[in-house]
């Protein structure tokens, strides 16, 4: 058996049913899913992908990219999606670390990534925003039949890179059962059926759009309206055809900013789900007043898929992420001792269950650090559980910034800032942003006599960091505030610059 895809296949409706419809009206049926994923699986094996090999992918969101994910799973490979905003320098790190057998990129980036692919012996293939490229050509010439490679529960299906606030990025290893168990649970908990039509405007290089949205719909046998990205006009146009939507808070903020987003427009909608970043109580309240529908907020991580969710039936409490999902153990612990804390106290959230990843790729010491001896994973998120059992996240350890649903780790940005001539030291913080939730702000202390300007600093970072990581504001100061222990006081900086974005 091929575990994850075998379950997808077992849940498939009639092969003639539409699985996916693009913005321009192109339709892909469930029969097409079987045939296209087989063609891509054959193409992968033809260029040397063996069971357990990594397939690294940095391409635009297309139906072909989704078929490539399924094909990798069918071929027994390990899918490694990479943010399309990453620079060639960033991609070089991931490829060097993961040593994929294949690197698939946009044709426009092929020259810049050729040396990276060659260094690890990866076959460099292309796929563009229209779903065309060298890999598409190979797939078009391949058979539409493929004998799936047998996989076990613990065999890896994907590696998703996440990052710590210090040190290098870590590859979270996700098994077939990690992904399948979560999809099974979410179908039931969120009551997805074959009648559902999900409006899919999320990226597919991230756990939210790739696993939560796509796997759940495949396990339910439903359909998707597949947008290349969130476009307000396109979403407003397609909402009447949808029954459900998954998004980040930014999506809902933008919808509420449109007069065309009315109660009548969404009166038929079954479910709006929000994740990847905290949803403010104000947005929750305004959405409910505008539409009569309560957004369902949930909590997940790259390493764990989904951990908690507000109830489908029952009160969806603003400012909370609901209850632990069935099969998921969750506790609040003292970050230092690991001792479980009484109800209502704030501590680190720890989780355990079939959804929790297998560890970090080639980092056994880091993996051991992040798990308690009884198997609970230490998330690093601080939270509490109230008297009714609802979980609230009250903060994030280590100053993680979440901007537009994407994680920004200050240490990575600070390291590059500190390399700029004239910079003595820097601090990167997140402050409230009306559109992105948090905006990245850099506070830079200049060396004596240095002639620094904010524009020059912005330019210096432009080709070294993905756009979402680049500071939206840069402040140059004489010195950064420190406490008596010499530690930079980021709380003070956040207070000082909290009004940067209005």
From TrEMBL:
SUPFAM superfamilies: Acetyl-CoA synthetase-like. It comes from the Bacteria. InterPro entries: AMP-bd_C, AMP-bd_C_sf, AMP-binding_CS, AMP-dep_synth/lig_dom, ANL_N_sf. Residues 412-487 form the AMP-binding enzyme C-terminal domain. GO terms for molecular function: medium-chain fatty acid-CoA ligase activity. Residues 16-361 form the AMP-dependent synthetase/ligase domain. Pfam families: AMP-binding, AMP-binding_C. One of its GO terms (biological process) is fatty acid metabolic process. PANTHER family: ACYL-COA SYNTHETASE, ACYL-COA SYNTHETASE FAMILY MEMBER 3. Belongs to the ATP-dependent AMP-binding enzyme family. This is Malonyl-CoA synthase. It comes from Roseibium aggregatum.
